[in-house]
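R.M. (postdoc): so does anyone remember the format we settled on? I'll just put the structure tokens first.
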């Protein structure tokens, strides 16, 4: 294998992006690097080597003088991220003086809790969550945080021990719960926490877990975007709701569209049920 081809193969195993200093530390000569460039590898900011198949978000981050972070890195990690603008979010050193196109980038200057390698192209998950907490509205940030917990990218016990250096991040570390396995649960919990209701998640009733139990008798079930692809699943839920009703529970079921786009109506329905005393045992 020619020297340039070895560089290209090495780049492919690194996601298609590496700094020239890393290539030299790996033992590649200047001639080998030049051959790789002649074969299609391009230089970004002179010192970075980028293969044609490298992720555009990563390339945009290093072209901007930083590394991928916040919602950009969260999406690339497969986390649930609420809709946001198409900017690439990057983290840079507080002393950085050459930052790329500000109109296409969301630049994060704060320093996350975890030290980052000199030539890292993306932030570690803790720093991603740190920037998400400082960047997004609280409810949206909480959705991303809980997604990281549910995917087991980080442990909740670890979150609460980290010295975040951010009141937003520290508050989310306390609030995030791995029991919320969908973004709808997260949204519902965050919005109703302000009302001081006795609200519990994933309570076992009649052999099945319910999304929320308010007080002793008011059950709230939330159906996600991809919930129940078959009539059989839907019939099973209808049967379960009927059984709970016969056991003395009131069941309120909402789908993702109602929770996301018709929240005032959802809130009014739940609070009206509480006003009627449907959350209390007879």
């Amino acid at each position: 294998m020619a020297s340039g081809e070895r560089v290209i193969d090495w780049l492919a195993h690194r996601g298609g992006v590496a700094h020239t200093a890393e290539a030299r530390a790996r033992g590649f000569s200047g001639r080998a690097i030049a051959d790789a460039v002649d074969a299609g590898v391009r230089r970004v900011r002179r010192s970075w080597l980028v293969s044609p198949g490298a992720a555009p978000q990563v390339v945009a981050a290093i072209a901007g003088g930083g590394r991928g972070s916040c919602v950009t890195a969260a999406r690339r990690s497969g986390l649930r991220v609420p809709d946001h603008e198409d900017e690439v979010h990057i983290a840079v050193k507080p002393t950085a003086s050459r930052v790329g196109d500000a109109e296409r980038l969301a630049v994060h200057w704060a320093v996350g809790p975890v030290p980052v390698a000199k030539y890292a192209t993306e932030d570690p998950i803790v720093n991603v969550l740190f920037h998400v907490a400082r960047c997004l509205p609280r409810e949206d940030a909480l959705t991303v945080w809980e997604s990281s917990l549910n995917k087991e990218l980080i442990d909740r016990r670890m979150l609460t021990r980290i010295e975040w250096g951010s009141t937003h991040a520290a508050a989310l570390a306390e609030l995030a719960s791995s029991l919320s396995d969908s973004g709808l649960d997260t949204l519902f919990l965050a919005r109703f926490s302000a009302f001081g209701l006795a609200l519990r998640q994933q309570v076992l009733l009649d052999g099945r877990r319910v999304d929320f139990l308010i007080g002793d008798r008011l059950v709230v079930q939330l159906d996600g975007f991809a919930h129940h692809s078959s009539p059989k699943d839907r019939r099973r839920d209808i049967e379960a709701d009927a059984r709970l009703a016969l056991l003395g529970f009131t069941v309120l079921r909402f789908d993702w569209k109602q929770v996301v786009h018709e929240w005032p109506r959802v809130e009014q329905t739940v609070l009206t049920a509480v006003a009627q005393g449907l959350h209390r045992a007879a």
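R.M.: ...and that's the designed sequence above, right after the tokens. Also worth knowing: Residues 231-246 form the longest helix (16 residues). The chain is about 45% helix and 15% strand.
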